[in-house]
Amino acid sequence: MAFLCAPGLTFFLTYSIFSAVLGMLQFGYNTGVINAPEKNIENFMKDVYKDRYGEDISEEFIQQLYSVAVSIFAIGGMLGGFSGGWMANRFGRKGGLLLNNVLGIAGACLMGFTKVSHSYEMLFLGRFIIGVNCGLNTSLVPMYISEIAPLNLRGGLGTVNQLAVTVGLLLSQVLGIEQILGTNEGWPILLGLAICPAILQLILLPVCPESPRYLLITKQWEEEARKALRRLRASGSVEEDIEEMRAEERAQQSESHISTMELICSPTLRPPLIIGIVMQLSQQFSGINAVFYYSTSLFMSSGLTEESAKFATIGIGAIMVVMTLVSIPLMDRTGRRTLHLYGLGGMFIFSIFITISFLIKEMIDWMSYLSVVATLGFVVFFAVGPGSIPWMITAELFSQGPRPSAMAIAVLVNWMANFVVGIGFPSMKTALENYTFLPFSVFLAIFWIFTYKKVPETKNKTFEEILALFRHNNGRSMLNCTNSLEPQSMNSGIEHAALMVSEEKTQHDSLFGTTSFSLTVEGMGPYPLSDSTNLLGPGSSSYGPGGVLGLAGSGSGLGGQCYTNYGTNLQTPQAARKCHYDEVDDYSFRRHSAHGRMSYSPYFGRKYLVVSKRRSQSLDED
Question: Helix or strand or coil: residue 570?
């Protein structure tokens, strides 16, 4: 309730978020809708095959056809998710969402008319197209919501995406029961109802503004961005938002984009990339989509009737919604790594219980209910950890430059693993029978060990601090340094970290006369410095004898004197670097590193590295 009353959550912002998040509801609905009518769809495929070829289809082949109908959705999602960034920049966030609804309507119509056309190929095509639609939604919707939300609401509103997915899942499961649409006549309508979120979004979204960030940063339309912000904030005072966006634009310009191949080949960025990939695999190979896609047949094989199995599936959807709400406050309070460990550990324990219930269901009648309880527990722990944390950690491991490529790889890996589970689980279930969940138990154990040994805690840490952990812990476990950073790690980490600079607001006349710079690195400890130390790489030798920053002036040289006090008694316990600089005409400095050279201006508006101008003062760095 406190979140609903938070400052900045205006009516029009709420309306815009609701309109956009219909895309994630579409994703959840189409993930779960194929589950309940499994037997009805298989019966339809049998009838079509017999009419075409005059013979009965084998059980093995019908399972393969059904698994294609399930998993081709993930193939479409892979294509859509990978194209999301291009579409967002080409047509805008809002424009991309509106165009994407054409795919949603087309896919829903194809699925809805499958039985009329007497063709299961139309079902496959419809599932593929709706998969592309959902893949684009998973990219465009979070992007749009994060860009229209004020800074204080961005984290909380980010969880709205996962909530919409779980609501969509629950809705599909409720509508799929036999009393509503889970019948031989009703299942095409059930699949065709995917048209509703698309049409509703087409009606509601045109009233919403385009993302102000897209308008200002990508299109350079400042006045349109201001108009959009005034509507979203219900206020004429939007200067703070505009300044923040300008700062982000300058930060993007200062940090070069890193291609996918450069990201893969970079020794510095490879460890966080591997962690991001394994985190995505831990979500999909945990076995959760086996539950979402096939829970009805799983429950039936454990001894439940078809009707009871469908109600148990509804219970899974309801648990997902409740636990997503519960996990929202835990995310920032407990930490990402800790929650992920709890989630994987709980899923491992309950996957063992699922296997036990399958093994002894013939001996004990009530054991089928244990399988239901164990599956619900499995879903509870998924919602606590692996449900949303892999996406969050993957984004937090990378700075502005490599993040787009890293997220594109993450989307591709996630959907690919989704496809593998969707296509392979029926065959695995036939081959392993009662031991179906044992491979997932093995994967969960491996992922838990990997998370414990390798994954750092990213809560309340800057990109510089996270990258410093990787460099400091080269070849060692990161567990020891998830909550503390040593000065040496920071010194080495800053060289490769994404760098943002900001200027304290000063009067225009301070640009003239004797000026000095003060340097503060927020959230970082003191650095042991030598007389030749340059935290940001070597500066040009013509601009001074040995500054902390590689400072460069275009019109006149920069001279000064520096000394380092290493502090050997109680009065001077920390190393301090003091410098005094003379006038410089061009207030810019350059960072040189192994990855190239970047130029910065002190007129930015971000934290982390703060460069400010003050008249006739010395520079102190602790």
Answer: coil
Q: Please, which residues have CB within 8 angstroms of residue 363's CB and are 6 or more apart in sequence?
A: none
What tokens appear for 355 in the block?
Answer: 């296997």
Q: Take residue 164 and report the two structure tokens written for it.
A: 């919409």
Q: Tokens standing for 468?
A: 């410093």
Residue 614 — φ and ψ, nearest 5°? -135, 145
Of 164, 159, 106, which is closest to residue 130 (Cα–Cα)? 106
Would you say 528 and 604 are in contact if contact means Cβ atoms under 8 Å apart?
no
Q: What is the pLDDT of residues 227-278, one digit of tens each?
A: 999 999 888 888 888 888 888 788 777 767 788 888 888 888 888 999 999 9
In this prediction the pTM is 0.71
Which of these, 263, 221, 260, lies nearest to 242 by C-alpha position?
A: 221
d(CA 458, CA 607): 17
- Report d(CA 82, CA 435) in Å as an integer: 35
Query: What's the pLDDT tens digit per position in 61-87?
Result: 998 999 999 999 999 999 998 888 888
What is the Cα–Cα distance from 380 to 382, expressed in whole angstroms?
5
474's tokens = 């080269």
Q: How far, in Å, CA of 453 to CA of 482, rounded?
A: 11
Q: Which of 141, 134, 217 is nearest to 169 (CA)?
A: 134
Measure the CA–CA gap between 161 and 138, rounded to whole angstroms: 9
Write the CA distances from 11 to 15, 52, 214, integer angstroms.
6, 56, 22
**Rounded average pLDDT over 301-314:** 85
Give the span between the Cα atoms of 389 and 393, in whole angstroms.
6
Among residues 425, 317, 296, 284, the alpha carbon closest in space to that of 35 is found at 296
Query: Domains of the chain by range and CATH?
Result: 1-208 (1.20.1250.20), 262-478 (1.20.1250.20)
Q: What's the rounded Cα separation, in Å, for the pair 421 and 75?
A: 12
Residue 376 has pLDDT above 80, yes or no: yes
Backbone angles phi, psi at 581, to 5 degrees: -115, 150
Q: Residues near 235 by Cβ (< 8 Å), separated by ≥ 6?
A: none
Cα-based distances in Å from 65 to 131, 257, 423:
17, 43, 10
Helix axes 11-32 and 93-112, enclosed angle (nearest 10):
30
Q: What are phi and psi of 567, to 5 degrees?
A: 60, 100
Query: Residue 56: phi, psi to the nearest 5?
Result: -75, 145
Instruction: Give the angle subtended at the CA of 587 by the CAs of 586 and 588, to the nearest 5°.
Output: 100
The 609-615 sheet, strands edge to edge: 501-502, 609-615, 515-521
